[in-house]
């Protein structure tokens, strides 16, 4: 295998952008951090209170990161954090990629989305932190959360927030058409047909620009898109056209063909307008969605109190499978001057009660730390967006607890783009779901081989 070629491809992919499927941050000081991380603290957004302690630099973009960093620095007697917000998504990844290529300029700790970890790990840009205190914090997170930040036996990040999936729905529309929340995908289709026959709105949306959502629904059906182990860095398993993957694409393609669901791109003003105006009866999404929707103006004005949430419909209710969409982690970079000290920061940030509570009360994150997930205050929270429904207790906490994790690929962005292309083809009627899955397999497998992988 041409390792240089593979790493070059990974560098290109790291610079690409995706729709962030987790809480996004804004503001903060731009620019980079002290070259090489370590003790350089000349460009901090925050004020460091204990200047006699060693400093770890970090990039992060949660809206409440200032509070989180201040809490950590106030409570810690071994190290202080110098935090900078260099942007989210491609803004941050472009800067990190530049630092990787230059061999300097990266922070000690970086906040990244979990599906990006393999892309940077394959470039040797992240550190396995398992030997730096993992055992002391292992019990703070569930096995699914740890799997999402691990590659093989190595751990390349500390889980912070996630996106256990559920079905948000309009109570007023369900009541009008005498619909009860479907427990299976068969019931979902039946309810959609009933609503259409009665002259109601579209039941949901099958969008081309949410490939991570489509992938999660395929995994729920039993698909395993990728198998990858860094111990065999040149080999990857790709299975995108198994029967489960075909079934899910055919299912949603048929719903769209019958006019039971829309096909509008999500995360757009037009889509949000449709959600507000009752164009869709359901929104299949993740636990971060209430915060996102609230920020986008949903659940206010005339549609206040009209939303509720139910568990994600299942293919086989006797064997339920919970899936996840989105999530972020704190990773230690290979440019960290003191990886062990940097790991202490990664493990400790967003792990204290005050920071965790601020995150979930202000709908900034859905926490993965079990100190929050097991907190009665969090579990019993009456969520205002859902009209006081105890959404965490009834839906999101059970989904998060049952999630088993997944394996991401080192070229996830190419896969997502290829998926978008094929879902668009399903929507325009040029291919069936099964045909799209075959084309996707051919496309992504060919790309992997071009990058020097042996495809299994």
UniProtKB/TrEMBL annotation:
UniProt xrefs under InterPro entries: Bact_solute-bd_prot1, SBP
Keywords: Signal
Signal peptide limits: 1-20
Matching Pfam families: SBP_bac_1 (PF01547)
Tagged with keyword Acetylation: no
Source domain of life: Bacteria
Keyword DNA repair: no
Name of the molecule in the record: ABC transporter substrate-binding protein
Protein's organism: [Actinomadura] parvosata subsp. kistnae
């Amino acid at each position: 295998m041409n390792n240089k070629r593979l790493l070059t491809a990974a560098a290109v992919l790291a610079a690409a952008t995706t729709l962030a499927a987790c809480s996004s941050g804004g503001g903060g000081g731009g620019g980079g951090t002290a070259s090489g991380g370590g003790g350089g603290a000349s460009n901090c957004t925050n004020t460091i209170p204990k200047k006699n302690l060693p400093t770890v630099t970090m990039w992060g973009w949660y809206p409440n990161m200032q509070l989180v960093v201040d809490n950590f620095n106030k409570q810690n007697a071994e190290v202080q954090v110098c935090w900078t917000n260099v942007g989210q998504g491609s803004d941050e990844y472009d800067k990190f990629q530049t630092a990787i290529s230059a061999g300097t300029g990266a922070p000690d700790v970086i906040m990244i989305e979990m599906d990006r970890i393999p892309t940077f790990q394959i470039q040797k840009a992240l550190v396995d932190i398992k030997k730096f205190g993992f055992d002391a914090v292992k019990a703070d997170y569930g096995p699914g959360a740890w799997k999402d930040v691990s590659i093989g036996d190595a751990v390349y990040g500390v889980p912070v927030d996630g996106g256990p999936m559920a079905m948000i729905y309009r109570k007023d529309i369900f009541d009008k058409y005498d619909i009860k929340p479907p427990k299976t995908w068969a019931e979902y289709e039946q309810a959609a047909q009933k609503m259409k026959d009665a002259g109601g709105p579209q039941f949901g949306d099958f969008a081309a620009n949410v490939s991570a959502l489509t992938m999660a629904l395929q995994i729920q059906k039993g698909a395993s898109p990728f198998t990858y182990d860094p111990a065999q860095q040149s080999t990857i398993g790709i299975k995108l056209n198994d029967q489960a993957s075909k079934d899910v694409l055919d299912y949603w393609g048929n719903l769209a063909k019958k006019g039971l669901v829309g096909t509008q791109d999500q995360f757009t003003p037009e889509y949000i307008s449709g959600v507000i105006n009752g164009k869709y009866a359901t929104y299949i999404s993740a636990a971060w969605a209430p915060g996102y929707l609230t920020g986008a103006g949903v659940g206010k004005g005339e549609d206040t109190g009209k939303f509720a949430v139910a568990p994600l419909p299942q293919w086989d209710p006797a064997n339920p499978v919970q899936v996840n969409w989105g999530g972020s982690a704190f990773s230690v970079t290979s440019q960290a001057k003191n990886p062990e000290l940097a790991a202490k920061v990664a493990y400790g940030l967003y792990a204290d009660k005050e920071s965790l509570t601020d995150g979930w009360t202000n709908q900034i994150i859905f926490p993965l730390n079990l100190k929050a997930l097991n907190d009665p205050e969090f579990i019993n929270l009456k969520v205002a967006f859902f009209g006081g429904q105890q959404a965490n207790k009834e839906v999101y906490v059970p989904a998060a607890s049952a999630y088993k994790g997944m394996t991401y690929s080192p070229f996830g962005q190419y896969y997502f783009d290829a998926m978008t292309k094929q879902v668009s083809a399903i929507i325009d009627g040029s291919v069936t779901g099964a045909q799209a899955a075959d084309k996707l397999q051919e496309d992504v497998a060919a790309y992997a081989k071009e990058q020097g992988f042996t495809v299994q």
